[in-house]
Amino acid sequence: MKNTVILISLGGTIASLPSSSGRAIAGALSGKELMEKLQIESDGPVEVITLFRKPSNAITTADLLQLRTLCIGLSQREDVAGLVVSQGTDTLEDTAYFLDTSLALPDTAVVVTGAQRVPYAPGSDAGPNLRDALKVAGSPQARGAGALVVFNEEIHAANSVRKLSSYQLNGFGSPGIGPMGFVDGGEVRLCKQLQRSNIIVPGEQLPRVDILPVAVDASPALLEAAVASGAKGLVIDAIGRGHIPPSWVEPLRSALNAGVPVVVTSSTHWGRVEEVYEYSGSLAEQVSMGAVKANHLNARKARLRLMCALSCKMPIDQSTFS
Ligand code: ASP
């Protein structure tokens, strides 16, 4: 019977204990300790694996590859309906998107969750979020839907979800799109169709890709330094529809001529990059030089997709981000 859900615990606030300073040690609890502490009742059997005990700022791309391999192995078990990954919220959207873009698990739900408030604080969201995540992971509707983020009674698609608040319980949202569904008490509702790009199967190591944030009159020195210090790809977190200061154009041309792929994203919260202007630093100019548009993906997600594509030696062109 396909009804087992496996919790893979990576750490984070959801698994924290207080330190003597009164501040939280994120990832101090194992997955088993977390389940015991929260005393969650689930619909079916739950197994627990503690993969890491880290705050999420310490998760590495090697960790993500290890998590992916574990998910593939577990999904091959006939009794496994879904997987829940619990981790710190700071990089939760990175993990969710990495799994979404690199894993095709047609018969297994993949759900990522965490908590904004430590499990020992009054009104903590640790228990409710974990309970809801286990419920969604056990739901047949979630199987094959890609990686989902379950948080604050909402279900979000990995490719649209973002951490929108540094501390509030409604910390995650999908700007411009809204949630894919809801958890309402015992009921799981996936109301929208999920649109996903094709899966990229990564190689054994994810290469370094740097994100370069644009701001008014930002210096291009970071761009030059990234290339000079060995970045294998760049993501420009550009302004508006995908624009850079005129002073970035020649360094960008040099990077592209040196064979470093460049993907352009928008630092706005919603809307794809698009060539609608004609001036120095416009997206049209960058694309004519060989830069690739990330469409709706934000910089952190585009970075992970570019890393996956580079790691398996795919040629990088517009089809990588279609
Ligand atoms: N700083 C914590 C972490 O990312 C935040 C959290 O879990 O909410 O591990």
Short description:
The protein is of the alpha/beta class and 322 residues long.
Can you tell me about this structure?
- It is a single chain.
- The protein is an alpha/beta fold.
- The protein folds into 2 domains: 4-190, Rossmann fold, CATH 3.40.50.1170; 209-321, 3-Layer(aba) Sandwich (Rossmann fold), CATH 3.40.50.40.
- It is built from 8 helices and 16 strands.
- The chain has helices spanning 31-38, 61-75, 92-102, 126-137, 221-228, 249-257, 283-289, 299-311, and strands at residues 4-11, 17-18, 24-25, 46-54, 80-86, 109-113, 147-151, 154-157, 162-163, 172-173, 181-184, 187-190, 209-213, 233-238, 262-266, 292-293.
- It has an 8-stranded mixed β-sheet, with helices on both faces. A 4-stranded parallel β-sheet has the order 13-14-15-16, sandwiched between helices. A two-stranded antiparallel sheet has the order 2-3.
- α3 crosses α8.
- The longest helix has 15 residues, at 61-75.
- Bound molecules: aspartic acid.
